[in-house]
Specification:
- With about 300 residues, the protein is α/β, with parallel strands linked by helices.
- It has eleven helices and nine strands.
- The strands form two sheets. Strands 4, 5, 6, 7, 8 and 9 form a six-stranded parallel sheet that branches. A three-stranded parallel sheet has the order 1-2-3, sandwiched between helices.
- Strand 1, helix 1 and strand 2 form a beta-alpha-beta unit.
- The radius of gyration is 18 Å and the shape is globular.
Length: about 300
């Protein structure tokens, strides 16, 4: 059985570290990402700049830098997303954001994200961004957070606001990410949705919403995505099989030390699952790389 090199839907990097975090590190350099990829069987990734989203960041990667890294390191970064803020231009819910999105698309951007602005999903400004992303055919990758003292689009327990926008924009692909998204693969509460719930999964809102809304997809990156499908392996294998057309392998590499993070074990988990017959080879291929290539090379 051929084990496949992965396509990473979610990676961060900078061409040079300008400002380090309080713990002493910064975003990884392209060569550091390449070293991590080589260690875990990853072919290349989607670079997510954050030039418009300083929340939680000490340094940023601009869209101009992301585009240049894709050009200069094509064996490591195959694609990039645009970091368009809903406040771009006129800081108004009536701003023509398609004006910016079309320029980003013409420059090579394949989507928008990682969207992490600290506004509610159904804030008029966010609805305007989603409306224009749908019109321009630009999928969005989002991070969910709490309002204030956090970063990410804001939703309540049970993801009611996400459900609202999924219904409003059926032609827009939403790639879900972060603890507050993946904790809801099972039944959860206000405390556990902030972290990495353990133990057997009693199905929660994420599978329910994915069954109801075909435009909801899953970014399996970070500790949150890895934990979601491995905490209860039997449930995880069934989830991967059921939603094989809408799940994307990812890492969320954002520092050189991620070489040793649990989230990097997702590649081996998928390899093991297919080798043991826990998931089909079709599901394995789609999640490992096929879905990403369909999204990015369309």
């Amino acid at each position: 059985m051929e084990l496949l090199p992965k396509i990473d839907i979610h990676v961060h990097a900078v061409p040079e570290v300008l400002v380090r975090r309080g713990r002493g590190d910064g975003y990884p350099l392209p060569a550091e990402v390449r070293a991590i990829y080589d260690a875990y069987g990853i072919e290349k990734g989607v670079l997510l700049p954050d030039g418009c989203y300083p929340e939680g960041s000490s340094d940023i990667c601009s869209p101009r830098e992301a585009r240049a890294m894709v050009r200069d390191w094509p064996e490591t970064f195959g694609w990039w997303f645009a970091p368009l803020s809903c406040a771009a231009g006129g800081n108004s819910p009536d701003t023509d954001l398609s004006w910016y999105l079309q320029q980003y698309r013409d420059a090579g951007a394949r989507g928008v994200g990682e969207i992490s602005e600290n506004r509610y999903f159904d804030d008029p400004m966010m609805l305007n961004l989603f409306r224009h992303c749908e019109a321009c055919g630009m999928p969005v990758l989002f991070h969910i957070g709490r309002l204030g003292g956090d970063y990410g689009i804001v939703d309540d327990l049970g993801l009611p606001r996400l459900e609202k926008v999924l219904g409003m924009f059926p032609g827009l692909k939403f790639l879900g990410h972060s603890q507050k998204f993946w904790a809801e693969i099972g039944q959860t509460d206000e405390a556990s949705r902030d972290g990495y719930p353990a133990g057997k999964v009693i199905p929660g809102r994420v599978p329910e919403l994915m069954r109801k809304y075909p435009n909801l997809c899953g970014d399996l990156s970070a500790g949150s995505g890895y934990n979601a499908v491995t905490r209860d392996p039997g449930f995880g294998w069934a989830f991967l099989e059921e939603f094989q057309d809408r799940l994307y392998f990812g890492t969320d590499i954002c520092a050189p030390c991620n070489m040793h993070s649990d989230m990097m074990k997702l590649s081996a988990f998928l390899d093991d699952a297919v080798q043991r017959g826990k998931i089909s080879y079709a599901a394995y291929e789609k999640i490992s790389r096929g879905n990403a290539l369909d999204l990015l090379e369309r």
